[in-house]
Design brief:
The chain has a domain at about 1-45: 3-Layer(aba) Sandwich (YefM-like fold), CATH 3.40.1620. The radius of gyration is 32 Å and the shape is elongated. A hairpin with a 2-residue loop joins strand 2 and strand 3 (about 35). A three-stranded mixed sheet has the order 1-2-3. The protein is an alpha+beta fold. The chain contains three helices and three strands.
Length: about 100
């Protein structure tokens, strides 16, 4: 935000509070030069999050919703994985050789 020195004088406390709340610097133009007012410690990004109402309805209904029709049917048998003999570090013997 860029302001003149006169604008800063008229509303200095609100502008300083805004710098503290947002962490955004305030640029003041005076005699053709620019000064920057910044907060020594910037607030965390999480503290600046704005709450949004994203769920239409009661969020508790989502917990008890039956999602089983939305997921593909999976067989109860575990997937078969290939089994290898040896250490896996250069051991090239076949199973019949061990």
């Amino acid at each position: 935000m860029t302001v003149t020195a006169s604008q800063l004088r008229n509303d200095i406390y609100r502008m300083l509070d805004k710098v503290l709340e947002t962490g955004s610097p305030l640029i003041v133009e005076r005699k053709g030069r620019r000064l920057k007012i910044v907060c020594d410690e910037t607030p965390s990004k999480l503290s600046r999050l704005v709450k949004h109402d994203c769920i239409a309805g009661d969020p508790e209904d989502l917990v008890h919703m039956d999602w089983s029709t939305e997921w593909p049917k999976m067989s109860s048998a575990p997937a078969k994985t290939p089994s290898f003999k040896g250490s896996g570090h250069g051991d090239t013997r076949r199973e019949s050789e061990t």
